[in-house]
Fold this sequence. Notes:
Oligomer: single chain
Strand content: 15-25%
Number of strands: 5
CATH class of the domain at 17-98: Alpha Beta
Number of helices: 5
Helix content: 25-40%
Low-confidence stretches: 6-10, 100-109
CATH topology of the domain at 17-98: Hypothetical Cytosolic Protein, Chain: A
Strand order of the largest sheet: 4-3-5
CATH superfamily of the domain at 17-98: YlxR-like
Order of helices and strands: HEEEEEHHHH
Mean pLDDT: 79
Distance between the termini: 74 Å
Shape: globular
Amino acid sequence: xxxxxxxxxxxHNGSQPERTCIGCRKKGKRSELLRLVAExxxxxxxxxxxxxxxxxxxxxxxxxxxxxxxxxxxxxFGRALAGATGTAAVEHWIKSGTSVAATATATPTxxxxxxxEN
Length: 118
């Protein structure tokens, strides 16, 4: 097999980018990890970027309480996100068991029938 065919085979294997969890320091697929960002504007809050589109530097964390506890113990949020230490939103997100798939399949908002508004 020549080099060109080997390169094409490597490119089409369907692999995803890997990221490192700031808690356990293990690598994982990007789709398996949560992206976290600092809120900005002088705040120290850390937010969960569910859509992975928010501006700014991101940090990655497995959505488990054990990785969250390790990240807090190691003070990894402040190092990864330039001084951001407020983890309340991340803790709430993980403890509530919210996932991107769950929010996408949430029940739709039901509009009242015409004339039933009071």
